[in-house]
Amino acid sequence: MRPAASALPCALSLLLAGAPAFALDCPEGQRPFTDVRGEICIPADPQRIVSLHDMTVTLPLLELGAPVVGSMGRIDAAGNRYMRSVDLVLGLDFESAGLGYIGAWEEFDYEAVAALAPDLIIGSRWDADYAERMGRIAPVVLVPDDPADAMSLARGVADAGGVLDRFEAEMARYEANLARVRAALPEAQGMTYAEVQADGGTLYVFTNFGASTKVLRDLGLVPNALTAELLAQGVADYAELTAEVLPRLEADVVLDSFTLAYGDSMQSPRERMAEVIPGWCDLLPACSEDRYVVLPRELTGISFRELDMMLVAISTNLARILHRPSAPSVPLE
């Protein structure tokens, strides 16, 4: 048993426990914000935001109407600049969105960033290596994310960008639609899922695949045993595994993805899996029994339009699986 503390330290600890924490003292026009490095000061009402990532920062900010002036982007085989998923989900490119191009990820053009005169630069934990140099141009916020909450990054981006109220309104709308789907598919509760992808001869198992994972969990599905183990080990995004784990991929539904932007066909994911495990579909019941679902990778981000599309796509496939004549009456063990 722990020794009893004296009365004075005990009273002091109670007093401190009830006292508010001291907030960071920010200059006028700024406010405290907790990013991956700790508490920092950012503009209270940013007007010229530069984004360090197209899918995870630019897309949700544009969707919510934040004042973005520049973004990281990509260059296709024809030499055209584009923002991945922003083009497919919102129908916008740099010109139509009125954004400046600041280079590709890991190849940022710092002069282009400075020329946009941003008052805030928003990134995530993946951008930590660039924060110091970017910080010489404008305040940089590296928004934290929580592996247990697929929308934590989007919520933090919206908060930093000054559009948290719009985020909360969209979340309420999504949750209302989710409740309707859950009521229509009560059998989905407790079904198991796995999210996989093969690429370049490597097998990946995902613990967090953005909108896809969120919708699955929101509908009441639970990770299969392998995914649950990876989560317990602290795997935040994905693990690279070997062909020997194939039997452990089995779940009531196994999801894979193809890309709309790089010339995939619906068969491409199956072909990539076969490069890792020849004959895999015959060996995995989820595939041979038509419980293997392929969805567009560009729609697995964290915007509300992607959530809406994923909710429709996943619920439709679950209904097909659950209501087919040969469907099991209970979820697989």
TrEMBL record:
<dbReference type="InterPro" id="IPR051313">
    <property type="entry name" value="Bact_iron-sidero_bind"/>
</dbReference>
<keyword id="KW-0813">Transport</keyword>
<feature type="signal peptide">
    <location>
        <begin position="1"/>
        <end position="23"/>
    </location>
</feature>
<dbReference type="InterPro" id="IPR002491">
    <property type="entry name" value="ABC_transptr_periplasmic_BD"/>
</dbReference>
<keyword id="KW-0408">Iron</keyword>
<dbReference type="GO" id="GO:0030288">
    <property type="term" value="C:outer membrane-bounded periplasmic space"/>
</dbReference>
<protein>
    <submittedName>
        <fullName>ABC-type Fe3+-hydroxamate transport system, periplasmic component</fullName>
    </submittedName>
</protein>
<keyword id="KW-0410">Iron transport</keyword>
<keyword id="KW-0406">Ion transport</keyword>
<comment type="similarity">
    <text>Belongs to the bacterial solute-binding protein 8 family.</text>
</comment>
<feature type="domain" description="Fe/B12 periplasmic-binding">
    <location>
        <begin position="49"/>
        <end position="326"/>
    </location>
</feature>
<keyword id="KW-0732">Signal</keyword>
<dbReference type="Pfam" id="PF01497">
    <property type="entry name" value="Peripla_BP_2"/>
</dbReference>
<dbReference type="GO" id="GO:1901678">
    <property type="term" value="P:iron coordination entity transport"/>
</dbReference>
